[in-house]
Amino acid sequence: MSKIKIERIASQIVRELSNIIFTEVKDEKIKSVTITASDLTPDLGLAKIYYTFLGNYSHEEVQNELEKAASFLRTKLAESIDIRHTPELKFIYDESIEYGANIEKIIEDINSR
3-class DSSP state for residue 97? Predict the structure, then answer.
């Protein structure tokens, strides 16, 4: 499968999962999640879903809730995306936002001196 098609499907997965979390999930920990990106294997068997979250939850709590809800989210995703095989979902915490915020804080500290 072409790389462009895989990227298009990965982008669609991000949009659809974000919509499912916003409209159909009842768990507040999962509702605090924002899907930032997804990577698909070339055979579409696995989707690595990168996320971040807001709130006073620990990273482990949110990760556990997402792992419990993975089959529900995959089922809903299968209903909304027209592909032959819906990939397995593996959730990975996206540390890039925290990293960027830390760099921004360091730059502000340097500029204030």
Answer: helix
The domain total for the chain is: 1
Say if residues 87 and 47 touch (Cβ distance below 8 Å): yes
pTM: 0.84
Between CA 79 and CA 22, with CA 90 as vertex, the angle to 5 degrees is 50
pLDDT tens series, the chain, 113 aa: 788 999 999 999 999 999 999 999 999 999 999 999 999 999 999 999 999 998 888 889 999 999 999 999 999 999 999 888 999 999 999 888 778 888 888 888 888 87
CATH of the domain at 73: 3.30.300.20
Residues in a beta bridge with 38: 49
Instruction: Quote the CA–CA distance of 45 and 49 in Å, as a whole number.
Output: 13
Q: Which helix (H) or strand (E) holds 65?
A: helix 59-80
State residue 54 phi and psi, 5-degree precision.
-115, 150
